[in-house]
Every structure is written in structure tokens, then in C-alpha cells.
Amino acid sequence: MTATEKADRKKTRIVALCGGVGGAKLALGLSRLLGSDLTVIVNTGDDFEHLGLQISPDLDTVLYTLSGLANRELGWGRADESWNFMEVLRDLGSETWFQLGDRDLALHVQRTHQLKSGRSLTSFMAEVANSFGIAAQILPMTDDTMRTTVVTTDGVMPFQRYFVERRCAPVVEKIVFDGASGTKPTAQVTAALNDPRLRAVVICPSNPFLSIDPILSVPGLRRLIEVAGVPVVAVSPIIGGKAVKGPTDKIMAELGVPTTSRAIVERYGGLLDGLVVDVADGDEVANLSIETHIVPTLMKTEADRDGLARSVLDFVDRLSMATGSREVGCR
Ligand code: GDP
Asked: 13-323 belongs to which homologous superfamily?
């Protein structure tokens, strides 16, 4: 074997599964450590058409976060934003429950135009990520249409109506991924999970019900992870029995699930080899059947994101060494 072939066989690549704001924080840390060795597979169940525009909230959050363009004050959207479009829209009496900044709008207009011309979302996002200077691959979980729908005590509503317009107030009874059975993983997602250089799969601290479940609902995608033969670890989005932000804990309570990291492991139903859990919840995961890595997981600063990413990589490498990569993942 030549030196190049040997180098090619080195397990350097990480695939991360990610939703929006919470997941993107860890994805940023991973991207700074790994560059082009990182592939982020992103939820598109939240995507929707609004005012004729194709909007991909989680993909855009990852795009803005990894390129350093995220709006840190708002916690969503793009930095240095202006709102002329929304002001005029309001004057015209149009619906304004979903905020679209002027700079953000340009991305939606271009995406809509490109998709209508027959381009795939994967291809469009790859070009935009490249033009934003991002070395990591940002992949939609599928190029097919799946729509997260929330069944609540106030009726059935599309995800963004529940999340943004109703601010997650309605009590959730069930979450449905409309169209899931007709979707498939893209060639790029399949290649990333089949790559012989794959080192581990990391499930970011995203909402398991709204961000990760849709990804795992793409037929065949979960199986690709199961047979990849590498450690699969999740970072718990629960700290001290609560979500850091957003409705994760509220939804868990409404669905009758305890708001614990243990419940997160159960949610992923045998997929995980390890869980990264905050020091505040160390006792709670004492007797888990999988390996745990107990470290501070709150990412407030850039250093927190980098530190957690480094710690996650140390953990997956420890799991690989302990188990031997051929046995790990043979579930
Ligand atoms: P969304 O799609 O924008 O709601 O974002 P995600 O689904 O990716 O992330 C939401 C989850 O991120 C929530 O459950 C939060 O508890 C979790 N989260 C946010 N920030 C942090 C953090 O700093 N550390 C950890 N462990 N979880 C976080």
C-alpha cells in the first residue's frame, strides 16, 4: 500500500447530526477543529414555503454559525441585518409573523429561484457554504420533502406556525413527519456515512423530537449509521433537568417523557455507544448501559464550543480504542 493509500484509510472524518441553534454551537466547535473533515447533516423537517419563498431555517442557522455570520444578539438569523423588507411588508398589510431580514431574504430568494430551476437543495447549499468560506460539508438530510407537523390541543399545525407564530405555547400531543416515507438520503449523505475514513457519528445537542427525529426518519438513514462501524455519541441538550433554550423540556413533559438525559438515550433507541452529559446531571446517568462522558456542556463562549468539541472527539477516540472499531456499531 502506498503512503497516500494509507493516509486515505486514516479515520479522520466526523459526521454530525444537527438541528438549528443548539446543534450549530457544537458544529461550529467541530468545524474549527476539523475543517473539511466535518460533514454536518442538517434537519430539513422545519423547511417551509412562506410568501412564495423556500425557507430552510436549520440549514441557514448552520450556514450562518459556521461562517461567523450568525446574529448573536437575536440568537437567530444573520448579523448586521436590516429590516426594510419587513417594514414595507407590514405597511402593505401582509403577514409578518415570520421575520425576514433583508440580507437573509436574498438567500431565500436565490434558493427559491435555484430550486425552481431544478437544482437540488444539496447542490445549492454546497455552493453557498463554499462562497461563505466554510470548509465543512453542510448537507440537507434529504432533497425530498418532509414536513414536521405538530398535533396540539389547539389543533394540528405546521412546525413554523407552532414554533414561531404560536411561540411553542400549544400543548403538544404528537409530532408527525409528513412525507417521511417518500424521502431518501441523498448520495452525499450516504457517501459521508459509508466513507472508510469515518471516525464517528456525533449527534449534536439538538432537540431530539423536532431536530434529530426527522433526520432519523429518512428511510435508510438510521441504518447507514448503525452499520457504519464507528462510535455513535450524542451530546445531551438537557442540563440540570432543563433545556438550555427552546421547547425541548416542555415538549418532553407534555409527551409524558421525563426531562432527563437518560430519556434522551432511550429516545435514540439503541443507536448510541456513548452520551456526553453535563456535570450537573452526572448522578442521573450513573447506571446507564452505554458509556458516559461527564463534562461541562454549556456553550456560552467560543472557547466553550471549541472545548466541548475537543472533549467529544477525545471521547469518541476513547470509545474506538476500548471497543475496537470493528465491534462498535455492530448493533
Ligand atoms: P433549534 O432547531 O434552533 O431549536 O435548535 P436545536 O434543535 O439544534 O437545539 C435546541 C436544543 O439545544 C435545546 O434542547 C437546548 O437545550 C440545546 N442547547 C442549546 N444550547 C446548548 C448548550 O450550550 N449546551 C447544551 N448541552 N445544549 C444546548
From this structure: CofD-like domains (3.40.50.10680)
